[in-house]
Write a structure and sequence with these properties.
homodimer; alpha+beta; Phosphoribosyl-aminoimidazole Synthetase, Chain A, domain 2; 60s Ribosomal Protein L30, Chain: A; four-stranded mixed beta sheet
């Protein structure tokens, strides 16, 4: 389906005067389910792999090593400044592949819909998924739709799984991190968490905060193409920067020292955190990552990230030191503290 | 992890006196989520691909063509005679791969848990998934856990996506079906639908009906190994045999004539259908499939299926005729009727 065809499908392709909301029968295997899939979902996601109606998609895989990942998305509300559940579901899984240095190629999508979901809402989300897949350069090649009775779900949950190609010889993982590596943060932190919070609670912020939700694969592949010897990558989703650093420290058996002053936080995000008592270090992001690279390549890596970034600046926020696995943070007044794993839930259902 | 290790983990590895139920924080990205994943899920599913804690699993793929599929599972109740949501989630996705003639290799798993789910229940389901993965010969290589607030989910939903290898040169799809092909049904129909119904409604059947839930890949690969020129395969899940035949007829542009008398239905299943007004033709199955093969290979195919089957007998139930896409059924009294797509929902949430 060409862009023109998609543009011509602006009205909901399921007759909404007849079916204003999703019914249990839309997941039941019968006529209504086929109508939903054939009229709405398959045309919206159209690609050669999807054209063959089958239980699975058959895919050419031109390398012998692939990356495979999955995530479910249960964000509330499903639409928020800077994104929606569809952009999270596409970019989130694309980013998990990118964090292995993989080139994202194929996505599966599983919808769990609640009976009573407005059909127009589903259509908006399906269209958004298609746009995001186009932006990220992936195909949605196979899928599934289930409907649960009213009260047993929450509008719409989406699972995506993704396949990406490994086209490099690096071993990008926490165990590859080396003493002396620079720690690069790709941009400012906390936007996604605050955007969700503001949308959910109806907060009126002086300057609206948009989610940083964005695909990261192009940036990562540019780092690899430029010969940056990337040791480890991690996107900063649930648990934020703090949790990501602790996970890498523990899994890699390395000590990480970061400098609070180097970590950018948008003024509105900082304001919300101060008022509500959140720590931006643990707020979720959907378009930020940390990269561990040899110190001598750090400046070049930052320049490449900024050339592909969304207006925000990357920074070298720390280094890998000798010592027991631990994450330490140097504050603006020169004090050093240990960064602890966030206990409990800072903000539920942010992705 | 060896079988011995699994056996030694019979008690729940998360301290249930402290955490008797799943909390929102078990999905929040912090300490509790890590405890759940590190203590329960990773050890239960242990394999080399899972050992590297990463956003995606890195997998060797020794062929250039793979099959990729996904399904979400929302069955109620989550445990029923002959299976549970875990066996559906593993075997269902394995079977979707098998229906392309693919050798199932890797599965992803995404849990959407409802706050308040008993931790023991989750542990039982995780253990069951591991056993089923072992039985089906697949690895659970990557996963995700989300928790939604009480009332926004229904205990446990599971999504699995699967990757399988295509090791043959056949094009197994509806468009490969040819006039003259025999239609083979791999066993009796309707068990899964009735097992779910009985468990849900507390029906007391004279003879308990167990779900037919089972992995089908070994059987399909045996057909291919024996040189059966398989034209099309389809497992009979939501919508049952009737919907599967109509889908193949429409997608392949072929007329299919089946013989009601050749379609096996267990006596208890038949009894429940007669009392409650269900048609076994549309009842869900989780371990049955139809195969379209050249007529001269049909007897051999049946023998191979029966050698790998679970005690039930396969049968040649029809043939592909010339004519417009349509499915016709010859009744026991010699009348022919058109098999229609089931309209609406026969039984919700059966998988």
């Amino acid at each position: 389906m060409s862009a023109v065809d998609v543009a011509s499908m602006l009205s909901c392709p399921v007759p909404i005067e007849q079916y204003p909301t999703v019914l249990l029968a839309h997941g039941g295997g019968g006529r209504l389910m086929h109508q939903l899939i054939e009229r709405m979902i398959v045309p919206a996601f159209a690609n050669p792999a999807l054209a063959v109606r089958h239980d699975a998609a058959l895919l050419p895989v031109p390398t012998s090593h692939v990356a495979f990942t999955t995530d479910s998305y249960v964000v509330r509300p499903i639409e928020f400044p800077g994104g929606d559940i569809a952009s999270l579901a596409v970019f989130g899984t694309v980013n998990d592949l990118a964090m292995c240095g993989a080139r994202p190629l194929y996505l599966s999508v599983g919808f769990i819909l609640e009976e009573g979901l407005p059909m127009e809402t589903l259509w908006r989300i399906v269209q958004s998924m298609r746009r995001c897949a186009d932006e990220a350069g992936v195909w949605l090649v196979t899928g599934d739709t289930k409907v649960v009775d009213h009260g047993s779900g929450d509008g719409i949950f989406i699972n995506t799984a993704g396949i990406g190609l490994i086209e490099h010889d690096l071993t990008i993982e926490p165990r590859s991190v080396r003493v002396g590596d620079a720690v690069i943060l790709s941009g400012d932190i906390g936007r996604h968490g605050v955007a969700i919070l503001a949308a959910r609670e109806g907060l009126e912020l002086e300057t609206a905060v948009e989610s940083d939700c964005a695909p990261l694969a192009t940036t990562v592949l540019a780092l690899l193409d430029a010969g940056i010897e990337v040791h480890c990558l991690r996107d900063l989703t649930r648990g934020g920067l703090g949790s990501a650093l602790i996970e890498i420290s523990e899994a890699g058996g390395v000590r990480i020292a970061v400098d609070d002053v180097a970590i950018a936080v948008n003024e509105s995000v900082q304001g919300v955190c101060e008022i509500l008592g959140f720590d931006p270090l643990y707020l979720a992001n959907e378009g930020r990552f940390v990269a561990f690279v040899p110190a001598e390549q750090a400046e070049l890596a930052c320049a490449i990230i900024d050339a592909h970034g969304a207006g925000t600046r990357s920074a070298i926020i720390g280094r890998v030191d000798r010592g027991e696995p631990l994450v330490t943070m140097l504050s603006s007044i020169g004090a050093t503290r240990i960064v602890e794993m966030m206990s409990g839930e800072q903000l539920p259902r942010i992705c």
